[in-house]
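Could you join me in thinking about how sequence relates to backbone shape in a protein? To get us started, please write out a protein record for me. Would you write everything just below, so we can both look at the same thing?
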Amino acid sequence: MAWWDRMFGRQRATPGFYGVCGECRHDWREHHPVQGCGECGYEREHDEPGAPGAVCAARAPGPTFP
């Protein structure tokens, strides 16, 4: 039952990196290798107070995207 192991037990062979970006302080999992930080983009798109002037382009360490 491989699906059972994936859902309830076994961990992925390559765990994703978790943490926050030192530049924009958003979760690394939001940082797409090409498009940049999705959270920064969302804040700019919705004119949120304190939104960054540009989308953070810092590269996430480790395997955050396949």
